[in-house]
Amino acid sequence: MTRLVVVDGAGGFLGRHVVRALRDRGMRVRATDRPGVALPDADARVHVDLSCDPLEPLFAGATHVVHVAGLFDLAAREDALRRANVAVARRVADAAVIARVRRFVHVSSVTVYGRPRVAPVREDARRRPESAYERSKHAGEDAVGAIARASGLPLVIARPSGIYGPHGRYGLAAMASTIALAAASGRGHRSLRSETRMTHVHVEDVASACALLCDERATRDEDVLDRAFHVADATPVTWSDVARTIERFYGLEERAPVRVTPLRARAMQIAGRLASARLARTNASLARRWEALVGERGLEHALTPRIDVDAYDYWRADHVYDTSALRGLGWSPRWPDAREGLRATLEWYVRERWLPAP
Asked: Is the confidence at residue 1, as pLDDT, over 60?
Protein backbone atom coordinates (compact mmCIF):
# COMPACT_ATOMS: atom_id res chain seq x y z
CA MET A 1 0.00 0.00 0.00
CA THR A 2 1.29 3.47 -0.85
CA ARG A 3 2.10 5.39 2.29
CA LEU A 4 0.50 8.78 2.88
CA VAL A 5 1.59 10.62 6.02
CA VAL A 6 -0.37 13.50 7.50
CA VAL A 7 1.94 15.97 9.26
CA ASP A 8 0.16 18.62 11.28
CA GLY A 9 1.96 21.73 12.44
CA ALA A 10 3.84 21.42 9.15
CA GLY A 11 4.42 25.15 8.82
CA GLY A 12 6.19 25.39 12.17
CA PHE A 13 9.76 25.01 13.33
CA LEU A 14 9.84 21.21 13.65
CA GLY A 15 7.02 20.39 11.23
CA ARG A 16 8.75 21.70 8.11
CA HIS A 17 11.79 19.54 8.88
CA VAL A 18 9.61 16.46 9.52
CA VAL A 19 7.97 16.90 6.12
CA ARG A 20 11.38 16.95 4.44
CA ALA A 21 12.67 13.93 6.39
CA LEU A 22 9.60 11.85 5.49
CA ARG A 23 9.85 12.73 1.81
CA ASP A 24 13.55 11.84 1.89
CA ARG A 25 12.42 8.36 2.99
CA GLY A 26 10.17 8.13 -0.05
CA MET A 27 6.87 8.77 1.73
CA ARG A 28 4.05 10.90 0.37
CA VAL A 29 3.16 13.74 2.72
CA ARG A 30 0.00 15.75 3.26
CA ALA A 31 1.12 18.87 5.15
CA THR A 32 -1.31 20.90 7.20
CA ASP A 33 -1.34 23.91 9.49
CA ARG A 34 -3.62 26.78 10.45
CA PRO A 35 -5.11 29.01 7.74
CA GLY A 36 -2.63 31.70 6.78
CA VAL A 37 0.48 29.71 7.75
CA ALA A 38 2.92 29.08 4.89
CA LEU A 39 3.38 25.37 4.26
CA PRO A 40 6.55 23.63 3.00
CA ASP A 41 6.75 21.67 -0.24
CA ALA A 42 4.70 18.48 0.09
CA ASP A 43 2.61 16.14 -2.04
CA ALA A 44 -0.50 17.91 -0.75
CA ARG A 45 -0.97 21.03 1.35
CA VAL A 46 -4.14 21.70 3.32
CA HIS A 47 -5.01 24.49 5.72
CA VAL A 48 -7.10 23.27 8.66
CA ASP A 49 -7.82 24.56 12.15
CA LEU A 50 -7.32 21.39 14.18
CA SER A 51 -9.21 22.81 17.14
CA CYS A 52 -12.57 23.16 15.38
CA ASP A 53 -12.62 22.17 11.68
CA PRO A 54 -13.87 18.72 10.57
CA LEU A 55 -10.83 16.46 10.34
CA GLU A 56 -12.20 13.54 8.30
CA PRO A 57 -11.26 15.11 4.92
CA LEU A 58 -7.73 15.79 6.16
CA PHE A 59 -7.21 12.14 7.12
CA ALA A 60 -8.97 10.55 4.15
CA GLY A 61 -6.64 7.93 2.68
CA ALA A 62 -3.91 8.58 5.28
CA THR A 63 -1.86 5.60 6.44
CA HIS A 64 0.35 7.38 8.98
CA VAL A 65 0.24 10.51 11.13
CA VAL A 66 3.00 12.55 12.75
CA HIS A 67 1.33 14.85 15.27
CA VAL A 68 3.67 17.81 15.64
CA ALA A 69 1.21 20.67 16.22
CA GLY A 70 1.30 22.20 19.67
CA LEU A 71 2.23 25.26 21.70
CA PHE A 72 5.74 25.64 23.09
CA ASP A 73 5.82 28.75 25.24
CA LEU A 74 6.88 28.57 28.88
CA ALA A 75 5.09 31.85 29.59
CA ALA A 76 1.74 30.91 27.99
CA ARG A 77 -1.44 30.63 30.03
CA GLU A 78 -2.39 27.15 31.17
CA ASP A 79 -5.76 27.21 29.40
CA ALA A 80 -4.06 28.05 26.08
CA LEU A 81 -1.50 25.30 26.62
CA ARG A 82 -4.18 22.71 27.38
CA ARG A 83 -6.19 23.66 24.30
CA ALA A 84 -3.16 23.33 22.03
CA ASN A 85 -1.38 20.40 23.65
CA VAL A 86 -4.25 18.31 25.01
CA ALA A 87 -7.57 19.07 23.32
CA VAL A 88 -6.06 19.22 19.82
CA ALA A 89 -4.04 16.04 20.41
CA ARG A 90 -7.24 14.26 21.44
CA ARG A 91 -9.12 15.45 18.31
CA VAL A 92 -6.28 14.41 16.01
CA ALA A 93 -5.96 10.98 17.62
CA ASP A 94 -9.71 10.41 17.35
CA ALA A 95 -9.57 11.28 13.64
CA ALA A 96 -6.64 8.92 13.16
CA VAL A 97 -8.66 6.10 14.74
CA ILE A 98 -11.47 6.66 12.26
CA ALA A 99 -8.98 6.71 9.38
CA ARG A 100 -7.44 3.45 10.67
CA VAL A 101 -3.88 4.65 10.27
CA ARG A 102 -1.05 2.16 10.59
CA ARG A 103 1.09 4.35 12.89
CA PHE A 104 0.47 7.48 14.91
CA VAL A 105 3.64 9.26 16.04
CA HIS A 106 2.86 11.71 18.84
CA VAL A 107 5.56 14.33 19.41
CA SER A 108 5.70 15.02 23.13
CA SER A 109 8.65 16.34 25.17
CA VAL A 110 11.15 15.32 27.86
CA THR A 111 9.57 18.06 29.96
CA VAL A 112 6.94 15.51 31.05
CA TYR A 113 9.49 14.43 33.69
CA GLY A 114 9.67 17.88 35.25
CA ARG A 115 12.96 18.46 37.09
CA PRO A 116 14.97 15.22 36.80
CA ARG A 117 16.13 13.51 39.99
CA VAL A 118 18.74 11.35 38.23
CA ALA A 119 20.91 11.56 35.13
CA PRO A 120 20.62 10.18 32.56
CA VAL A 121 16.83 9.84 32.54
CA ARG A 122 15.34 6.68 31.04
CA GLU A 123 11.95 6.46 29.34
CA ASP A 124 10.50 4.49 32.27
CA ALA A 125 11.31 7.24 34.79
CA ARG A 126 8.44 8.68 36.78
CA ARG A 127 6.85 11.72 35.14
CA ARG A 128 6.67 14.66 37.60
CA PRO A 129 5.56 17.74 35.61
CA GLU A 130 5.66 21.02 37.50
CA SER A 131 5.08 24.00 35.20
CA ALA A 132 1.96 24.65 33.16
CA TYR A 133 3.77 23.71 29.96
CA GLU A 134 5.08 20.46 31.44
CA ARG A 135 1.63 19.53 32.71
CA SER A 136 0.10 20.14 29.29
CA LYS A 137 2.59 17.83 27.57
CA HIS A 138 2.03 15.17 30.24
CA ALA A 139 -1.75 15.45 29.80
CA GLY A 140 -1.38 15.31 26.02
CA GLU A 141 0.49 12.02 26.29
CA ASP A 142 -2.17 10.65 28.62
CA ALA A 143 -4.97 11.73 26.27
CA VAL A 144 -3.60 9.97 23.19
CA GLY A 145 -2.54 7.02 25.31
CA ALA A 146 -6.09 6.54 26.60
CA ILE A 147 -7.44 6.66 23.04
CA ALA A 148 -4.84 4.12 21.91
CA ARG A 149 -5.71 1.71 24.72
CA ALA A 150 -9.43 2.00 24.03
CA SER A 151 -9.26 1.79 20.23
CA GLY A 152 -6.06 -0.02 19.33
CA LEU A 153 -4.56 3.07 17.69
CA PRO A 154 -0.93 2.11 16.82
CA LEU A 155 0.80 4.74 18.96
CA VAL A 156 4.46 5.75 19.20
CA ILE A 157 5.61 8.64 21.40
CA ALA A 158 8.70 10.75 20.66
CA ARG A 159 10.09 12.84 23.52
CA PRO A 160 12.61 15.36 22.18
CA SER A 161 14.91 17.30 24.44
CA GLY A 162 15.41 21.05 23.92
CA ILE A 163 15.19 21.58 20.15
CA TYR A 164 17.28 24.18 18.31
CA GLY A 165 18.26 24.79 14.69
CA PRO A 166 17.24 26.70 11.53
CA HIS A 167 13.84 28.37 11.75
CA GLY A 168 13.80 28.10 15.56
CA ARG A 169 12.33 31.19 17.23
CA TYR A 170 12.37 30.26 20.90
CA GLY A 171 14.62 28.62 23.49
CA LEU A 172 18.24 28.95 22.38
CA ALA A 173 17.08 31.34 19.63
CA ALA A 174 15.83 33.82 22.24
CA MET A 175 19.08 33.44 24.16
CA ALA A 176 21.08 34.07 20.98
CA SER A 177 19.11 37.21 20.10
CA THR A 178 19.57 38.58 23.63
CA ILE A 179 23.35 38.15 23.41
CA ALA A 180 23.41 39.49 19.84
CA LEU A 181 21.54 42.59 21.02
CA ALA A 182 24.16 43.18 23.72
CA ALA A 183 26.96 42.79 21.20
CA ALA A 184 25.35 45.15 18.68
CA SER A 185 24.45 47.83 21.21
CA GLY A 186 27.87 47.95 22.85
CA ARG A 187 26.22 48.22 26.29
CA GLY A 188 28.09 45.23 27.67
CA HIS A 189 26.75 41.86 28.63
CA ARG A 190 26.06 40.30 32.01
CA SER A 191 27.32 36.76 31.53
CA LEU A 192 25.44 34.12 33.50
CA ARG A 193 27.20 30.84 34.11
CA SER A 194 25.57 27.59 35.17
CA GLU A 195 27.35 24.24 35.38
CA THR A 196 24.18 22.16 35.16
CA ARG A 197 24.19 20.00 32.02
CA MET A 198 21.70 19.22 29.29
CA THR A 199 21.49 17.08 26.17
CA HIS A 200 19.94 19.32 23.51
CA VAL A 201 18.90 18.15 20.04
CA HIS A 202 19.10 19.66 16.56
CA VAL A 203 15.77 19.98 14.74
CA GLU A 204 17.05 17.90 11.82
CA ASP A 205 17.79 15.04 14.20
CA VAL A 206 14.30 15.21 15.72
CA ALA A 207 12.82 15.13 12.21
CA SER A 208 14.90 12.09 11.23
CA ALA A 209 13.79 10.31 14.41
CA CYS A 210 10.12 11.03 13.70
CA ALA A 211 10.51 9.73 10.15
CA LEU A 212 12.19 6.55 11.40
CA LEU A 213 9.48 5.92 14.01
CA CYS A 214 6.85 6.43 11.31
CA ASP A 215 8.46 4.02 8.86
CA GLU A 216 7.25 0.45 9.40
CA ARG A 217 9.59 -0.71 6.63
CA ALA A 218 12.60 0.31 8.74
CA THR A 219 11.22 -0.48 12.22
CA ARG A 220 9.04 -3.37 13.34
CA ASP A 221 5.73 -2.74 15.09
CA GLU A 222 6.75 -4.86 18.06
CA ASP A 223 9.83 -2.66 18.58
CA VAL A 224 8.09 0.72 18.56
CA LEU A 225 4.35 0.56 19.24
CA ASP A 226 3.12 1.53 22.70
CA ARG A 227 6.57 2.87 23.55
CA ALA A 228 8.16 6.26 24.17
CA PHE A 229 11.58 7.25 22.81
CA HIS A 230 13.90 10.03 23.91
CA VAL A 231 15.37 12.13 21.11
CA ALA A 232 18.52 13.93 22.26
CA ASP A 233 22.10 14.43 21.15
CA ALA A 234 25.09 12.51 22.51
CA THR A 235 26.94 15.21 24.44
CA PRO A 236 25.70 16.75 27.71
CA VAL A 237 26.90 20.37 27.76
CA THR A 238 26.68 22.96 30.51
CA TRP A 239 24.70 26.14 30.15
CA SER A 240 28.03 27.93 30.52
CA ASP A 241 29.16 26.08 27.37
CA VAL A 242 26.06 27.21 25.50
CA ALA A 243 26.46 30.86 26.54
CA ARG A 244 30.17 30.87 25.69
CA THR A 245 29.43 29.45 22.23
CA ILE A 246 27.12 32.37 21.43
CA GLU A 247 29.34 34.99 23.09
CA ARG A 248 32.42 33.82 21.20
CA PHE A 249 30.48 33.89 17.94
CA TYR A 250 29.85 37.58 18.63
CA GLY A 251 33.32 38.28 20.00
CA LEU A 252 32.10 39.16 23.49
CA GLU A 253 34.67 38.91 26.24
CA GLU A 254 33.88 37.12 29.50
CA ARG A 255 33.82 39.76 32.23
CA ALA A 256 33.19 38.80 35.85
CA PRO A 257 30.47 36.27 35.05
CA VAL A 258 27.66 35.64 37.51
CA ARG A 259 27.76 32.06 38.79
CA VAL A 260 24.28 30.58 39.02
CA THR A 261 23.98 27.58 41.32
CA PRO A 262 20.81 25.45 41.33
CA LEU A 263 19.73 27.20 44.55
CA ARG A 264 20.32 30.62 43.03
CA ALA A 265 18.44 29.63 39.87
CA ARG A 266 15.44 28.77 42.04
CA ALA A 267 15.71 32.11 43.84
CA MET A 268 15.88 33.94 40.50
CA GLN A 269 12.78 32.06 39.35
CA ILE A 270 10.80 32.96 42.47
CA ALA A 271 11.94 36.60 42.32
CA GLY A 272 10.89 36.82 38.67
CA ARG A 273 7.42 35.51 39.46
CA LEU A 274 6.99 37.86 42.39
CA ALA A 275 8.17 40.81 40.32
CA SER A 276 6.22 39.88 37.19
CA ALA A 277 5.47 43.52 36.34
CA ARG A 278 9.17 44.35 36.43
CA LEU A 279 9.96 41.33 34.25
CA ALA A 280 7.30 42.43 31.76
CA ARG A 281 8.92 45.88 31.57
CA THR A 282 12.33 44.29 31.03
CA ASN A 283 11.03 42.13 28.20
CA ALA A 284 9.22 45.11 26.66
CA SER A 285 12.48 47.08 26.76
CA LEU A 286 14.34 44.21 25.10
CA ALA A 287 11.68 44.01 22.39
CA ARG A 288 11.87 47.78 21.68
CA ARG A 289 15.65 47.73 21.47
CA TRP A 290 15.51 44.68 19.20
CA GLU A 291 12.98 46.30 16.88
CA ALA A 292 15.27 49.33 16.58
CA LEU A 293 18.17 47.03 15.68
CA VAL A 294 16.05 45.14 13.14
CA GLY A 295 15.19 48.41 11.42
CA GLU A 296 18.75 49.69 11.55
CA ARG A 297 20.32 46.50 10.15
CA GLY A 298 17.51 45.51 7.78
CA LEU A 299 16.88 42.20 9.58
CA GLU A 300 13.87 39.92 9.32
CA HIS A 301 11.17 40.26 11.98
CA ALA A 302 11.69 36.67 13.14
CA LEU A 303 13.22 36.68 16.63
CA THR A 304 12.59 38.59 19.84
CA PRO A 305 14.82 38.54 22.93
CA ARG A 306 12.98 37.68 26.14
CA ILE A 307 13.50 36.31 29.61
CA ASP A 308 11.29 33.47 30.85
CA VAL A 309 11.55 32.68 34.54
CA ASP A 310 10.46 29.08 33.99
CA ALA A 311 13.55 28.59 31.82
CA TYR A 312 15.59 28.72 35.05
CA ASP A 313 14.24 25.24 35.76
CA TYR A 314 16.86 23.98 33.33
CA TRP A 315 19.56 25.47 35.58
CA ARG A 316 18.32 23.69 38.70
CA ALA A 317 19.28 20.15 37.71
CA ASP A 318 20.97 18.16 34.97
CA HIS A 319 18.65 17.40 32.04
CA VAL A 320 20.42 14.46 30.45
CA TYR A 321 18.39 11.84 28.60
CA ASP A 322 19.21 8.24 27.70
CA THR A 323 18.71 7.60 23.97
CA SER A 324 19.77 3.96 23.87
CA ALA A 325 16.24 2.82 22.94
CA LEU A 326 16.14 5.03 19.84
CA ARG A 327 19.74 4.21 18.94
CA GLY A 328 18.80 0.54 19.13
CA LEU A 329 16.53 1.16 16.13
CA GLY A 330 19.47 2.48 14.10
CA TRP A 331 19.07 6.23 14.76
CA SER A 332 22.05 8.45 15.44
CA PRO A 333 22.24 12.26 15.54
CA ARG A 334 23.87 14.13 12.70
CA TRP A 335 24.70 16.82 15.27
CA PRO A 336 25.98 14.94 18.37
CA ASP A 337 27.30 18.08 20.13
CA ALA A 338 25.10 21.15 20.61
CA ARG A 339 28.09 23.47 20.51
CA GLU A 340 28.82 22.51 16.91
CA GLY A 341 25.17 22.51 15.92
CA LEU A 342 24.58 25.87 17.58
CA ARG A 343 27.48 27.51 15.73
CA ALA A 344 26.06 26.25 12.43
CA THR A 345 22.61 27.52 13.45
CA LEU A 346 23.98 30.97 14.29
CA GLU A 347 25.58 31.11 10.85
CA TRP A 348 22.19 30.21 9.32
CA TYR A 349 20.49 32.99 11.30
CA VAL A 350 23.04 35.50 10.03
CA ARG A 351 22.70 34.32 6.40
CA GLU A 352 18.92 34.58 6.60
CA ARG A 353 19.18 37.96 8.36
CA TRP A 354 17.43 36.73 11.49
CA LEU A 355 20.44 37.85 13.55
CA PRO A 356 22.94 40.63 12.92
CA ALA A 357 26.37 39.62 11.66
CA PRO A 358 29.15 39.56 14.29
From this structure: no
What does R_g of the chain's alpha carbons equal in angstroms?
20
CA angle 134, 135, 137 (to 5 degrees): 65
Q: Do residues 80 and 71 lie in contact, with contact meaning Cβ atoms separated by under 8 Å?
A: yes
Given a cut of 90, whether residue 276 has pLDDT beyond it is: no
Give the integer Cα–Cα distance in Å for 337 and 342: 9
Domain ranges of the chain: 4-166+201-234+320-335, 172-196+236-319+344-351
Q: How far apart (Å, rounded) are the C-alpha atoms in residues 200 and 258?
A: 23
Check the CA dihedral 246-178-335-193 and report its sign: positive
| Separation between Cα atoms, residue 69 and residue 86, nearest integer Å | 11
Mean pLDDT, rounded, for 34-48: 97
Superfamily of domain 4-166+201-234+320-335: NAD(P)-binding Rossmann-like Domain (3.40.50.720)
